[in-house]
Design a protein that fits this description.
A four-stranded antiparallel sheet has the order 1-2-3-4, with helices on one face. It has one helix spanning 5-56; strands at 104-109, 112-123, 138-146, 154-161. It is α+β, with helices and mostly antiparallel strands and 163 residues long. The protein has one helix and four strands; from the N terminus they run αββββ.
Length: 163
């Protein structure tokens, strides 16, 4: 005699298989999202590090780019309000660390579009996270990289010391 128990068991198996398939699909989609996000973050960090490496290779200040050295340190260094380059240029024309102040560029890579901006401030050894507001022997460079595909901006920073 035929009863409905076989149909109910078959329907239960189909429902169970569907739940497992949906969870597996969700897990794969989440893994792919994390992989792409990680690739985007890696590229953003690499872009920021390129700028930091370039800035670190330059002189500390405009007054230290030539053969002569400033007479009075740190008072002869560039005034905090005058940090940055005196002319519009790409970063290849920069000759000292603080030329990167207020530098902004948009770069397009295979991973997407990245908006890069920088900020340079004088800092003290005792408080390297806050602007000193006056000339010191330490400059702090922060490179911010954002992308429409990243949830947050990536910030990478370094400190260059005159000494």
């Amino acid at each position: 005699m035929f009863d409905y128990s076989d149909i109910i068991v078959a329907l239960g198996a189909v429902v169970l298989f569907s739940v497992i398939a949906i969870n597996a699909n969700r897990m794969l989609a989440n893994h792919n999202r994390q992989f792409v996000e990680g690739d985007l973050e890696y590229t953003a960090i690499a872009k920021a590090q390129e700028i930091i490496d370039q800035a670190q290779s330059l002189a500390f200040d405009e007054t230290t780019t030539g053969r002569t050295k400033p007479v009075s340190i740190p008072e002869d260094f560039t005034d905090p309000e005058n940090l940055g380059t005196a002319f519009d240029s790409d970063s290849t024309g920069f000759d000292d660390f603080d030329d990167f102040h207020s530098y902004a560029v948009t770069e397009t890579t295979a991973q997407g579009v990245y908006n890069i901006s920088t900020r340079v401030v004088y800092v003290t050894e005792s408080n390297p996270g806050t602007s000193a507001g006056q000339e010191t022997g330490n400059k702090h460079l922060t490179v911010s990289v954002s992308s429409p595909y990243l949830p947050d901006s990536i910030n990478v920073s370094c400190i260059k010391t005159h000494y």
